[in-house]
Amino acid sequence: MNQHVPASDGDALAKRNALVLACAQALGGASPSIVISLGGIVGSSLVEDQTFATVPVSLMQFGIACGVIPAAMLMRRLGRRDGYVIGALIGAMAASIAAAGAGSRLFWLFCLGTFMCGLYGAFVQSYRFAAADTATESFKPRAISWVMIGGIAAGVIGPQSVYWTRDLTPAAPFAASFLAQGCLALIAILVVIRLRAPPVAAVKTAGGRPLGEIMRQPKFIASVIAALVAYGLMSFVMTAAPLAMVACGHSVGDAALGIQWHVLAMFGPSFFTGRLIARFGKEKITALGLILTALAAIVGLSGLSVAHFWIALVLLGIGWNFGFIGATALVTDCYRPEERVKVQAANDFLVFGSVAIASFSSGGLLHAGGWTSVNWLVFPPVAIALALVAWQALSRRAVPA
């Protein structure tokens, strides 16, 4: 059972939990970066039809979508801490299965492993909401940002794990990298047991509004669409990037380092994203993230050198940070404390379901139309999301508080 936490702890407790979760993010966040770095490359070596090369990465995203609601239900029953321990154990098992699939050259087994990595990712994705659970309204954006800072370490740990372990098992290429991923998940258990958040089940659940009513709120619609566009486009482009780099004659090492810079750019701005949101507002920072995502596509269309790929991936990462953290902060305005579990789960299901669709389509579009088509498809969703965020911002100004 989780420890009882007195309400008087205030933001001191929230800061402690955010630091614990940031460390857990550093370890758990390394898992998807390993799958993203290697999933398409390993997949392409296991199938003849290259349209299916990115299916392992897409299945990880699909695993996140499938896992968010069961993970929320589990944590509602057992509490955040015990749920996160179970999630890390799933992550260790998943990495072992992926390693076995890569080593035995069984595409279906490798896909099963990456899908289960997504189930682990469903727990990791909720770290940001867990940090906000015990925070005051003014500290929530910063608490979310603090957790995302852990992704900076993940951005180094994941790709560097690939770099240092990729050749350890010549007979089973990259299997050692997935075993390293499993070890990181086990280490994460030693971190998440330090969490002192109260059990989710302890929160009053009576009196909450029906989920449909909450989801029909214009601010919920705008925030979720902004989140799924920010995350979906990031996944769409990022999934294709390593394969596109290799297809353009760049090395696997260049592709892995490109993902490293991308992940660092995803989480590095978290040092100040919360303060930017507090100063300029959630809508403005979310909109800035969407604009940077479009700028990444412009760079991607302008050349095929390593520098072009890396700059595009960095801009894509920064755009994701501002867009996704801003949209997450907007979602926290849409529910009451007793409604948070179901709304958070619904939000993540919608976001990561869309991310999975984007990831599945990425490989086929890359194979059919090339890197250029991937980048051109960024602009329409960004325009729609920007319009909705702007509309919500104007509506908020027009209605007195």
UniProtKB/TrEMBL annotation:
<feature type="transmembrane region" description="Helical">
    <location>
        <begin position="220"/>
        <end position="247"/>
    </location>
</feature>
<dbReference type="InterPro" id="IPR036259">
    <property type="entry name" value="MFS_trans_sf"/>
</dbReference>
<feature type="transmembrane region" description="Helical">
    <location>
        <begin position="347"/>
        <end position="368"/>
    </location>
</feature>
<feature type="transmembrane region" description="Helical">
    <location>
        <begin position="310"/>
        <end position="335"/>
    </location>
</feature>
<feature type="transmembrane region" description="Helical">
    <location>
        <begin position="82"/>
        <end position="100"/>
    </location>
</feature>
<keyword id="KW-1133">Transmembrane helix</keyword>
<dbReference type="InterPro" id="IPR011701">
    <property type="entry name" value="MFS"/>
</dbReference>
<keyword id="KW-0812">Transmembrane</keyword>
<dbReference type="GO" id="GO:0022857">
    <property type="term" value="F:transmembrane transporter activity"/>
</dbReference>
<feature type="transmembrane region" description="Helical">
    <location>
        <begin position="53"/>
        <end position="75"/>
    </location>
</feature>
<feature type="transmembrane region" description="Helical">
    <location>
        <begin position="259"/>
        <end position="278"/>
    </location>
</feature>
<keyword id="KW-0472">Membrane</keyword>
<feature type="transmembrane region" description="Helical">
    <location>
        <begin position="18"/>
        <end position="41"/>
    </location>
</feature>
<feature type="transmembrane region" description="Helical">
    <location>
        <begin position="106"/>
        <end position="123"/>
    </location>
</feature>
<feature type="transmembrane region" description="Helical">
    <location>
        <begin position="285"/>
        <end position="304"/>
    </location>
</feature>
<dbReference type="InterPro" id="IPR020846">
    <property type="entry name" value="MFS_dom"/>
</dbReference>
<feature type="transmembrane region" description="Helical">
    <location>
        <begin position="174"/>
        <end position="195"/>
    </location>
</feature>
<dbReference type="Pfam" id="PF07690">
    <property type="entry name" value="MFS_1"/>
</dbReference>
<feature type="transmembrane region" description="Helical">
    <location>
        <begin position="374"/>
        <end position="394"/>
    </location>
</feature>
<protein>
    <submittedName>
        <fullName>Predicted arabinose efflux permease, MFS family</fullName>
    </submittedName>
</protein>
<feature type="domain" description="Major facilitator superfamily (MFS) profile">
    <location>
        <begin position="219"/>
        <end position="401"/>
    </location>
</feature>
<feature type="transmembrane region" description="Helical">
    <location>
        <begin position="143"/>
        <end position="162"/>
    </location>
</feature>
